[in-house]
Amino acid sequence: MSKTATLEYNGEKYEFPVTIGTEDEIAIDIKTLRANSGIITLDPGYKNTGSCESAITYLDGEKGILRYRGYTIEELAEKADFLEVAYLLIFGELPTQSQLDKFHDDIRDQAVVDEEMKKILDSFPKSAHPMGVLASLTSALIAFNPSSVNVSSEEDMYKAIVKLMAKFPVLVAWTLRKKEGLPLDYGDDTLGYVENIAKMMFKRPNKEYKKNDITINALDKLLILHADHEQNCSTSTVRIVGSSHAGLFASISAGISALWGPLHGGANQAVIEMLEGIKADGGDTKKYMAKAKDKNDPFRLMGFGHRVYKNFDPRARIIKKAADDVLGNLGIVDPVLDIAKGLEKEALEDQYFVDRKLYPNVDFYSGIIYRALNIPTEMFTVMFAMGRLPGWIAQWREMRLRNEPIGRPRQVYIGENQRAFVDISKR
Ligand code: CMC
Q1: Ligand 1: does its nearest atom lie under 6 Å from the Cβ of 319?
Q2: Which Gene3D superfamilies does the record cross-reference, listed alphabetically (predicted)?
Q3: 232 pocket-lining for ligand 1 (C-beta < 6 Å)
Q4: Beta-strand pair 26-28/4-9
Q5: What does the pLDDT average to over 211-220?
């Protein structure tokens, strides 16, 4: 039996259908609210607002569940590789070997970026933040690939997706190489997708590149863990920009900018800077715990808390273990890892954090692994963007295929009422 919800206001009753998702999530469908009543809803930060129906990612913040297309993040991080997960997210099913081979071959065919793009990169100062460079280069790709995507053609859509999956890792590697003053290079099409990313990033001009399985496995896992997270800030940005029928590359570039902020993907850089700061200050974690709880201090414990996870972030659990494994396997002792573990222990026992259900999130331990892999701190959020790329693409594709309307929230106006213009001589 279909369910309804009733809203009563000013003596009038309004009925709304209730939508129930496949995991029994309940939503009141208010599409007719304004037309029938003249009323709108107010929900800053969209804490209670579902912006779409989506079949890509499911997460339950109370139970700490995260699944891509029905598969648990734990199983995918253990058994799949990043390209398989990208295919799964974008096209909805795990690929057969021949589907995966074709996807990879098509990507290899597109893995060259127009040489002219190097001039754009060249014009950035070395001090530029890599996230700004990456957003700009992604946007610049449009100029070199101007044909708009006909979204009603699966073939057109596929071609645009493959192009982006192919060229984005080159841009990621170039932003790093620019920062490090290394010559720009292309990948090697005999390598796996992630292995190729590692080579493009780490190859030195005077040394033969040697594959390191620990690095590649760690990167694979991190990229998978970041690959999608339903309607977060950057993904919602990608969907809303795309909803104006701006192209795929423009939508992704906007998503990169949204990801950059320290409350979102930029937290991975902020965590390491915070841990380094605590170390330089004598390692007194209690002092920083007190700062985080002090409402007159803007300091927040970076890498803690999440809009949706109110129990634990399953990605953080996997990454914490991976950090131990990677550092152990590489023979690295990083005192910052001990500070992080100390902070986590204190926070989990502290009433302030317990009351607010604040737990370590995906960004708390990821930077420690990136550091162990010799990735500079300013590149951490770029690595997050590399991982999130298939998720953004999948969400953009879903939004366009569902022919969603342009995103355009309403507001409650709280400014001045109409008033007469006052000439400047009389103000
Ligand atoms: N340190 C100290 N207090 C915190 C923290 C923190 N990291 N996070 C939340 N709080 C407090 C906050 O002050 C508020 O307290 P009160 O109820 O007394 O006013 C309460 O907890 C609820 O916080 P909120 O800001 O209303 O929650 P939100 O859902 O709007 O924000 C968040 C979620 C992730 C932005 C926030 O927890 C935060 O700023 N965390 C630090 C930044 C971070 O690690 N971001 C990465 C998020 S996960 C990966 C990603 O999205 O990219």
Answers
A1: no
A2: 2.20.28.60, Citrate Synthase, domain 1 (1.10.580.10), Cytochrome P450-Terp, domain 2 (1.10.230.10)
A3: yes
A4: unpaired
A5: 92
pLDDT digits (tens, 9 = 90+) for 279-320: 999 999 999 999 999 999 999 999 999 999 988 899 999 999
For residue 284, report the distance from its CA to the centre of ligand 1, in Å: 22
* Full strand arrangement of the beta sheet holding 12-20: 4-9, 12-20, 26-28
Which of 66, 274, 300, 344 for a ligand 1 pocket mutation test, highest count of atoms within 8 Å of Cβ? 300
Q: The dihedral of CA 138, 142, 145, 147: what is its sign?
A: positive
Contact between 261 and 135 under an 8 Å Cβ cutoff? The reply is no
Closest-lying ligand 1 atom to the alpha carbon of residue 229? 51
Distance between CA atoms of residues 219 and 193, nearest Å: 11
If one residue of 275, 353, 358, 392 were mutated to test the ligand 1 pocket, choosing by the most ligand atoms within 8 A of its CB, it would be 358
- Would residue 30 count as lying in a domain? yes
Total count of domains within the chain: 1
Residues 45-61 as b or e (16 or more Cβ within 10 Å = b)? eeeeeebeebebbbbbb
DSSP per-residue codes, 247-308: -HHHHHHHHHHHHHSTTTTTHHHHHHHHHHHHHHTTS-HHHHHHHHH-TTS----TTB--SS
* 42 located within any domain: yes
Catalytic residue numbers, as ranges: 306, 363
Between the CA of 292 and the centroid of ligand 1 the distance, in Å, is 10
In a domain, 268, yes or no: no
Residue 359 Cα to ligand 1 midpoint, Å, equals: 10
Render pLDDT for 335-391 as a digit per residue (tens, 0 to 9): 998 899 899 999 999 999 999 999 999 999 999 999 999 999 999 999 999 999 999
Asked if the structure places residue 38 within a domain, the reply is yes
Entry pTM: 0.95
The CATH code of the domain that includes 31 is 2.20.28
